[in-house]
Specification:
Layout: H1 3-8, H2 18-45, H3 49-75, H4 93-118, H5 123-149
């Protein structure tokens, strides 16, 4: 493999099979489900109703991403099991929303990378990753709006 192939992540088509894809989908599912739970927990801790409502709406959007991944995992013959991991907290509402935003942005970037990686070999999966990336962009806008309205200096 040459320099440019390593740089863009291109590998021979024989190495790109769904044996590697299913564990990646499961990891994404666990991360999305963890983020949905985290956003719900942060909504319960929000100091004002507007922030709580915004976070609950964000959690519903997050649930759509979880359902999309769940359907894809089932179509590949996978099973959902395992723990979701720990959620991140914070000393105030602003910090918690920023954690949600950063986690969401990291997922968006990983979806973009994976869509580029799997592009010619698995078009259905690429379409899923692109859809999830667009969902993440919308959720980023919502979380950014909530963070802008929060007071970064207020303590709970």
């Amino acid at each position: 493999m040459g320099f440019w192939e390593r740089l863009i992540g291109a590998e021979p088509g024989a190495q790109k099979d769904h044996q590697r894809l299913l564990p990646e989908l499961l990891a994404f599912y666990r991360e999305e489900a963890r983020l949905a739970r985290q956003i719900r927990e942060h909504a319960d801790l929000a100091p004002h109703e507007a922030g709580a409502q915004g976070l609950r709406a964000a959690a519903k959007e997050q649930d759509r991403a979880v359902q999309l991944l769940h359907g894809e995992i089932i179509s590949f013959g996978g099973e959902i099991n395992g723990s979701l991991g720990l959620t991140k907290g914070g000393k105030n509402h602003w910090t918690r929303v920023i954690h949600d935003l950063e986690d969401n942005q990291a997922l968006r970037q990983r979806y973009n990378e994976q869509a580029s990686y799997w592009d010619p070999d698995f078009p259905d999966v690429v379409a899923l990753y692109r859809t999830l990336e667009h969902e993440k962009a919308r959720l980023n806008a919502s979380l950014r709006d909530i963070a802008l309205r929060a007071d970064p200096h207020a303590l709970d």
